[in-house]
């Protein structure tokens, strides 16, 4: 048992080493990268422009394989780390994603249940009709019970009369609030993230810093990278960088969201989902906690509440 | 559903070449569709399964529990007035002397230290649930014959035989009341200290419990110490055992350690704050606070 376990570990490590060395090669071969981060040392480049060929200095690719609670059943998924600093898509490195969050079975029905819940729990139906008691008039018997040869009637506001009350109509403001079971909400988030990742609509970026507050920049960036018509940018806090806040405020199909607001509806509404590294870590931590916690959740009762 | 494995991988691979999953193309499982109450159509639509005429069709069935004129079953059972107000009464979950002896023997409780409700709850073998109106421990006399430990114990409720069993071995027992706020602190001190609020001043028992805690026969914490000594002698004579002289006992200090009526924890006074982060105790300096907590 133990030897088998060790063997599988060694295989994983070799595998990852092979992948990372291949990545390093690819990154070295791919097109030259403009240095946009002030922390990078550009002095070599400047010195070498005077004498001899230009060898752009570049930092080593960022390869993040840290995972606090790795899955015992599946190898991690891998994603590129990208940057919003330039229009062209330049990969900074790779990151390991948790397979139980970014590689779950695509339960479309769970997504549907989540969407229906998100639409309904805040819905109040104001539909109301007047019953025969509420329609004005109708207190008097229109004609005597007997002797006229006509049908028997007690009120002109009976539901079978034109202008009468409504029988069994909608009554008053009605709440549609209910809570979806917690595990379904968590599975919904996992499925949405997995679908986005599987369909190449999930992008991990180092931060939401962009060089300009002009909406044209971010629009061109998404066009160039084929990131789709709409995008949701998610950061770990709700204090967003200045440039992206100003740029996105003028583009309705691009939206900013903190991690605590992340939900299935918004993820599926936008074509592309952009997560920062910090947001990614927080999402993984929170979802893993919700998946594996043993304490009871007393905040919501799993009952349909009718008022 | 499998979170990982070949089936999942295959499904995700398939999804790669399918249209994007959006709000517009979701669907529930076929079995989850709602069935309509009122069926339409040639066969089922005639009376929609409700038959013709009468209460069934017009939804004028009699109220739930109505037995057509008979006395309903829920009125046949006589009332039990002695249960009236049971949801408001104080509850003392029992702990037997046998259980206590077993905890001591297994090393879950150190009998060389005074035992109180905190000690019992810390064993994790005895639980107090505040929302069920538990007010502390009721030490019962089961296993009184085999009880052999010499303890100084503080309980909330007990009886004469239990007191005799403890005092026969040279131990001491006190009954005392904790108000709900203090009880929450006593039951789980860690959670209480982490809230960072001052240790409360324990209130006096409510009117209907005052007599119990002032009675020296119950070894109440509000009783006079001299009367308690007399009571110890009286009980020894009644049950026919020889009372050891507590003054000459080598563990005299431990056996006579008591809390003040307003004190919740041994060694900590009301008004103090236990700071778990800096591992220190913060005491009030303001005169107003001091007089309030001292009163």
Tell me, briefly, the overall form of chain B: extended
Give the distance, in angstroms, between the N- and C-terminal Cα atoms of chain B: 63 Å
Residues in helix, % of chain A:
25-40%
Mean pLDDT of chain B: 93
Mean pLDDT of chain A: 83
What are the SSEs and their pairings?
The complex is a heterodimer of chains A (307) and B (295).
Chain A lengths: L1 H28 L13 H6 L13 E3 L12 E6 L10 E5 L1 H4 L5 H13 L3 E2 L48 E2 L6 H17 L3 E4 L9 H11 L5 E5 L6 H8 L4 E5 L5 H6 L2 E5 H16 L15
Parallel strand pairs in A: 1-3, 2-6, 6-9, 7-8, 7-9
Antiparallel strand pairs in A: 2-3, 4-5
Chain B lengths: L5 H11 L37 H5 L14 H4 L17 E3 H9 L11 H6 L15 E3 L11 E4 L1 E2 L1 H9 L3 E4 L4 H8 L1 H6 L12 H8 L10 H15 L12 H4 L17 E3 L4 E3 L4 H8 L1
Parallel strand pairs in B: 1-2, 2-4, 3-5
Antiparallel strand pairs in B: 6-7
Molecular structure report:
- The complex is a heterodimer of chains A (about 300) and B (about 300).
- In chain A, helix 4 (about 110-120) packs across helix 5 and helix 6 (about 215-225) crosses helix 7.
- Chain A is about 35% helix and about 10% strand.
- With about 300 residues, chain A is of the alpha/beta class.
- The longest helix of chain A is centred in the N-terminal third of the chain and has 28 residues, at about 1-30.
- Chain A has 2 domains: about 60-120 and about 180-290, 3-Layer(aba) Sandwich (Ribosomal Protein L4, Chain: A), CATH 3.40.1370.10; about 125-175, no CATH class.
- Chain B is mostly helical and about 300 residues long.
- Chain B has a domain at about 90-265.
- Chain B contains 12 helices and 7 strands.
- In chain B, a hairpin with a 4-residue loop joins strand 6 (about 275) and strand 7.
- Chain B is extended.
- Chain B starts with 5 loop residues before the first helix and ends with a helix.
- The mean pLDDT of chain B is about 95.
- The interface of A and B includes residues 73, 115, 265 and 271 of A.
């Amino acid at each position: 048992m133990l030897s088998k376990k060790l063997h599988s570990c060694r295989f994983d490590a070799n595998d990852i080493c092979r992948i990372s060395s291949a990545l390093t090669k690819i990154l070295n071969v791919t097109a030259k990268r403009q240095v946009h981060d002030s922390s990078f040392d550009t002095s070599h480049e400047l010195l070498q422009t005077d004498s001899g060929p230009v060898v752009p200095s570049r930092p080593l690719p960022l390869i993040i394989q840290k995972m606090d609670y790795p899955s015992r059943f599946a190898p991690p998924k891998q994603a590129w780390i990208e940057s919003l600093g330039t229009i062209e898509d330049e990969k900074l490195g790779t990151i390991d994603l948790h397979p139980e969050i970014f590689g779950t079975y695509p339960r479309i029905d769970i997504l549907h249940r989540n969407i229906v819940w998100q639409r309904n729990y805040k819905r109040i139906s104001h539909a109301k009709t007047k019953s025969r008691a509420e329609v004005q008039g109708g207190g008097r018997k229109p004609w005597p019970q007997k002797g006229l040869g006509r049908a028997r009637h007690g009120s002109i506001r009976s539901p079978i009369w034109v202008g009468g009350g409504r029988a069994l109509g909608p009554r008053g403001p009605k709440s549609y609030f209910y809570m979806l079971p917690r595990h379904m909400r968590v599975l919904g988030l996992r499925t949405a993230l997995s679908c986005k990742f599987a369909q190449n609509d999930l992008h991990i970026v180092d931060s939401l810093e962009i060089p300009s507050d002009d909406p044209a920049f971010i629009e061109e960036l998404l066009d160039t990278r084929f990131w789709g018509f709409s995008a949701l940018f998610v950061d770990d806090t709700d204090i967003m960088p200045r440039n992206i806040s100003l740029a996105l405020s003028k583009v309705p199909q691009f939206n900013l969201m903190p991690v605590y607001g992340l939900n299935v509806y918004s993820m599926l509404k936008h074509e592309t989902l952009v997560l920062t590294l910090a947001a990614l870590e927080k999402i993984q931590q929170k979802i893993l906690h919700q998946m594996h916690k043993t304490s009871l959740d007393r905040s919501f009762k799993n009952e349909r509440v009718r008022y | 559903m499998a979170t990982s494995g070949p089936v999942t991988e295959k499904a995700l691979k398939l999804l790669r070449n399918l249209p994007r999953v959006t709000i517009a193309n979701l669907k529930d499982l076929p079995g989850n569709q709602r069935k309509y109450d009122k069926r339409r159509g040639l066969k089922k639509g005639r009376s929609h399964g409700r038959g013709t005429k009468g209460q069934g069709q017009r939804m004028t069935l009699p109220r739930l529990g109505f037995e057509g004129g008979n006395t309903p079953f829920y009125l046949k059972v006589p009332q039990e007035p002695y249960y009236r107000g049971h949801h408001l009464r104080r509850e003392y979950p029992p702990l037997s002397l046998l259980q206590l002896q077993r905890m001591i023997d297994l090393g879950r409780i150190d009998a060389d230290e005074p035992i109180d409700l905190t000690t019992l709850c810390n064993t994790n073998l005895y639980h107090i649930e505040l929302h069920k109106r538990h007010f502390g421990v009721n030490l019962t006399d089961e296993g009184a014959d085999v009880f052999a430990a010499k303890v100084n114990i503080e309980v909330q409720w007990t009886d004469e035989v239990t007191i005799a069993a403890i005092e026969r071995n040279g131990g001491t027992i006190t009954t005392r009341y904790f108000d709900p706020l203090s009880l929450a602190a006593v039951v789980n001190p860690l959670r209480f200290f982490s809230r960072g609020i001052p240790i409360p001043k324990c209130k006096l028992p409510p009117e209907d419990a005052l007599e119990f805690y002032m009675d020296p026969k119950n070894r109440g914490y509000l009783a006079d110490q001299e009367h308690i000594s007399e009571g110890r002698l009286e009980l020894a004579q009644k049950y026919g055992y020889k009372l050891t002289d507590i003054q000459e006992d080598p563990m005299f200090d431990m056996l006579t350690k008591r809390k003040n009526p307003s004190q919740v924890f041994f060694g900590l006074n009301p008004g103090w704050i236990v700071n778990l982060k800096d591992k220190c105790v913060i005491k009030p300096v303001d005169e107003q606070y001091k007089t309030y907590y001292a009163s």
